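Working notes for the structural subgroup meeting. M.R. asked for a predicted model of this chain before we commit to crystallization trials. I am recording the input and output together here so anyone reviewing the notebook later can reproduce the run.

Input as submitted:
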Amino acid sequence: MPPIKLMMSKQPPQRQSEIWNAITNAVRKHQDAKSGAATLQNEVIYITTKR
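Returned structure, recorded in token form:
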């Protein structure tokens, strides 16, 4: 189960609906008008070491 669904499963149904609506509304700001696809920018910091 994806972490978001695991976290949400502990919430009552009404609260789950509120959270999903908030996520949906936030993602719409990043949605392409033609395709409907949403692109979210993020940054990954990846460090690897060797002994």
